[in-house]
Write a structure and sequence with these properties.
About 60% of the residues lie in helices and about 0% in strands. It has helices at about 15-25, 25-45, 60-65, 80-90, 105-120, 120-140, 140-190.
């Protein structure tokens, strides 16, 4: 590289590059795959084991497991609404007795993460307070209360960390673009400036050449 040429060093890591490529995909596709995966996880205890009566579990368990997970497809478009729908739906799981004993929390935790990562400050704080209050009122035991609180706080913290990382990556991209613009501007400025050629030896202002002719003697 020639002397004087600017160097642009990218501070993006492999994780940042992978995140940028993932973010380039349509959000609806990514969230659809995520919602489908969580739905399978929530349905797995219902389809992999038999009920206490030896047959299939009550249909209510399947409905609630699906209804609490599928709204995640729209989690980035309406984070608070998706969280509220998933949270309220998951609380209805135990209305039927003959269902697999499992927490319907995966959709809720992803929804809470999404609120922390994409929503503004006021909705985040309100949702955090209401969720903690709801966990306190509906917890059947201290163990359930502690586990629910830890999970909610962890989802919120991870969501805020993701938002901070995304903002940092955006700042790095803006800095890289600014350096590139400045480099291009510097090249154009150097191209416009050309040093003047030195004056020609035969042109005006060149030193005079004196030629002396001496007489010759005839033979």
């Amino acid at each position: 590289m020639r002397e004087g040429q600017w160097h642009t060093v990218s501070d993006l890591t492999l994780v940042d590059v992978a995140r940028r490529r993932l973010q380039a995909l349509p959000h609806l596709w990514v969230d659809g795959v995520l919602a489908g995966a969580i739905t399978v996880v929530q349905l797995w205890p219902l389809i992999s084991s038999a009920s206490s009566m030896g047959g299939s579990w009550h249909w209510w368990g399947y409905v609630v497991a699906i209804a609490a997970s599928l709204p995640l497809v729209w989690r980035r478009r309406a984070p608070v609404t998706v969280l509220v729908v998933s949270l309220c739906t998951s609380e209805l799981y135990d209305l039927a007795d003959d269902v697999a004993r499992q927490p319907i929390w995966y959709g809720v935790l992803v929804g809470f993460y999404t609120v922390a990562a994409y929503s503004s400050r006021a909705p985040r704080i309100i949702v955090l307070i209401l969720t903690c209050a709801g966990t306190l009122l509906t917890a059947g035991s201290w163990d359930t209360l502690l586990r629910g609180t830890v999970q909610v706080v962890a989802a919120y913290a991870i969501g805020r960390a993701a938002a901070t990382s995304r903002a940092h990556a955006a700042a790095l991209e803006e800095r890289t673009a600014r350096l590139e613009r400045e480099r291009q501007t510097g090249w154009k400025g150097n191209a416009r400036w050309k040093p003047s050629a030195p004056p020609s030896a035969s042109g005006p202002g060149s030193p005079a050449t004196c030629t002396t002719s001496w007489p010759t003697r005839s033979a």
